[in-house]
């Protein structure tokens, strides 16, 4: 039985594995919130530019969307890293992968926060 | 090394025979993961149109209302539901919860997913 359950891969490290798992659970909750507020609180959905601007005027929305973005980006990068680990990268290759993921993650989150600020400011 | 990559092993990815339920669950999780990651990238680029102003965003939304894009969005919803429910199963199993019933739980979550996806399909194409 023990061989059948999910556990950290070789080279993954237990904390990164735990982060991937816990962020996955957090995303399951936040995606429900993201969906409900996107489609129900904003009446009829966010189908025009003006809808989105009005939506971001609701207090807490920008913070919720940014939190969601951070969880999703990190979970997606961890998951992508898991796929690379299945291909048994060399130490050198893994280092390149790690730095690539860090740069991509920081860039995606910075971009998302910038975008949320731009929209909230209009 | 037993776990080292080789081209013959790579071709076995595409051989559907002799797979067990757990393997299908793994494949489902990985395929949906890749799909959702691609969607995340597209979604972030698409939302960038908000910074360009009303015309850019509204013309994108007009494109998003075409049947082909809506079908793509349904695939994203389907991937999200399957990956999310299966992920919850994997998390519970990882902490030793319900490990004995993982196959049954997988079948149940598949049924739940199909129901939810059918509802979304109906909603997106007939109500929205």
Give the secondary structure arrangement, pairings included.
The complex is a heterodimer of chains A (122) and B (128).
Chain A: H1 14-41, H2 49-55, H3 61-86, H4 91-120
Helix pairs in contact in A: 1-3, 3-4
Chain B: H1 7-12, H2 21-47, H3 54-64, H4 67-94, H5 102-127
Brief account:
The complex is a heterodimer of chains A (122) and B (128). Helix content of chain A is 75%, strand content 0%.
Search tags:
heterodimer, A: 122 residues, mainly alpha, 3 helical TM bundles of succinate and fumarate reductases, 4 helices, 0% strand, elongated, B: 128 residues, 5 helices, globular
Q: Largest sheet of chain B at a glance? A: none
Q: According to CATH, what is the class of chain A? A: Mainly Alpha
* Unreliable residue runs of chain A: none
- Broad structural category of chain A: mainly alpha
Q: How many distinct folded domains of chain B?
A: 1
User: How does the overall form of chain A come out from the CA principal axes?
Assistant: elongated
* Bulk shape of chain B: globular
List how many beta strands of chain B DSSP finds.
0
The termini of chain A sit apart by: 55 Å
Helix content of chain A: over 70%
Largest interface: A-B, 31 and 34 residues
Residue-averaged pLDDT of chain A, rounded? 88
Q: Architecture of chain A, according to CATH?
A: Up-down Bundle
Radius of gyration of chain B: 19 Å
Helix content of chain B: over 70%
Gyration radius of chain A (Cα, Å) is 18 Å
CATH class category name of chain B: Mainly Alpha
- How many domains is the backbone of chain A divided into? 1
Structural commentary:
The complex is a heterodimer of chains A (about 120) and B (about 130). With about 120 residues, chain A is mainly α. Chain A has a single domain (about 10-120), classed as Up-down Bundle (3 helical TM bundles of succinate and fumarate reductases), CATH 1.20.1300. Helices cover about 75% and strands about 0% of the residues of chain A. Chain A is built from four helices and no strands. By secondary structure, chain B is mainly alpha-helical. Chain B has one domain: Fumarate reductase/succinate dehydrogenase, transmembrane subunit (3 helical TM bundles of succinate and fumarate reductases). Chain B is built from five helices and no strands. Chain B has helices at about 5-10, 20-45, 55-65, 65-95, 100-125. In chain B, helix 2 (about 20-45) crosses helix 4 (about 65-95) and helix 4 runs antiparallel to helix 5. Chain B starts with 6 loop residues before the first helix and ends with a helix. The mean pLDDT of chain B is about 90. The chains are: A mainly alpha (about 120), B mainly alpha (about 130). The interface of A and B includes residues 80, 83 and 112 of A.
